[in-house]
């Protein structure tokens, strides 16, 4: 059940968000080795963000998963997501933070129960 919440100060008006969501969803599923049917991506734009004292394009993400995360996987996820944000939204890789949370299934509700 990987869930990636992304916030950026870029306006998403007129942006093909479907392609961004699809690319990121596929990358997360492939890298974490979880079925894409359980991957959730949330993309929020026009969020006020200051990074390094400027409001130039930037983004922040938090990825929560029940297992599947480790230092090598996290590095691959960071590279993949930052590359997509750079190519699709012009957010430079050095203006993006991604935080990882490896969680227990009992801490996530789904389908009226928990994992």
From TrEMBL:
It comes from the Eukaryota. Pfam families: MIF. One of its GO terms (cellular component) is extracellular space. GO terms for molecular function: phenylpyruvate tautomerase activity. Belongs to the MIF family. This is Macrophage migration inhibitory factor. It comes from Zostera marina.
């Amino acid at each position: 059940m990987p869930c990636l919440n992304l916030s950026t100060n870029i306006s998403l008006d007129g942006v093909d968000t479907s392609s961004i969501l699809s690319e990121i969803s596929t990358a997360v599923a492939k890298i974490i080795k979880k079925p894409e049917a359980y991957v959730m991506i949330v993309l929020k734009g026009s969020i006020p963000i200051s990074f390094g004292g400027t409001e130039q394009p930037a983004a922040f993400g938090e990825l929560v998963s029940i297992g599947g995360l480790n230092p090598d996987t996290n590095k691959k996820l960071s590279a993949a997501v930052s590359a997509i944000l750079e190519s699709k939204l012009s957010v430079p890789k050095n203006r993006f933070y991604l935080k990882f949370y490896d969680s227990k299934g009992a801490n996530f509700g789904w389908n009226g129960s928990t994992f």
